[in-house]
């Protein structure tokens, strides 16, 4: 539910703006599965992710071209997902390019590779949200 006070005072967040603005001049919100690699093998996962390198992943140059094309169609948000996006060697280069193009970036991660240094890098790269999947055995 929208916080009317925040909206009235001009303090609504980016998500409120995307959800409630009247003009719909923005393009699609895109989930970019930037890698199939993953350091886990969760039974529930829809992705056939493994720790192997996959030859069908976009190159850095092609991924940057994709981000440019998304910016051209006014895509407001790109969600980097996978697999585990933090396993992509050029992730921070792609995040920098997305930021340069004016794209808002968010990440979906399993969280196992996050530490204070990586969190600081993500914040420095302008990532506005990191979603962490919490799944596991009932004993946890």
From TrEMBL:
Gene3D superfamilies membership: Aldolase class I
Signal peptide: none
InterPro entries according to UniProt: Aldolase_TIM, Radical_SAM_PqqE_MftC-like, rSAM, rSAM_sf
Keyword terms: Iron, Iron-sulfur, Metal-binding, S-adenosyl-L-methionine
GO molecular function: catalytic activity; iron-sulfur cluster binding; metal ion binding
Keyword Transport: no
Protein name: Radical SAM core domain-containing protein
Organism: marine sediment metagenome
């Amino acid at each position: 539910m929208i916080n009317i006070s925040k909206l009235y005072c001009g303090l609504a967040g980016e998500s409120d703006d995307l959800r409630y603005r009247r003009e719909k001049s923005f393009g699609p919100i895109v989930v970019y599965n930037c890698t199939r690699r993953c350091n886990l093998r969760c039974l529930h996962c829809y992705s056939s992710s493994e720790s192997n390198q996959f030859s069908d992943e976009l190159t850095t140059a092609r991924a940057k071209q994709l981000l440019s094309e998304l910016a051209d169609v006014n895509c407001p948000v790109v969600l980097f997902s996978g697999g585990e996006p933090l396993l992509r060697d050029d992730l921070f280069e792609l995040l920098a390019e997305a930021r340069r193009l004016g794209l808002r970036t968010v990440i979906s991660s399993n969280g196992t590779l996050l530490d204070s240094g990586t969190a600081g890098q993500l914040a420095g790269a302008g990532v506005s949200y990191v979603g962490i999947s919490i799944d596991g055995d009932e004993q946890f």
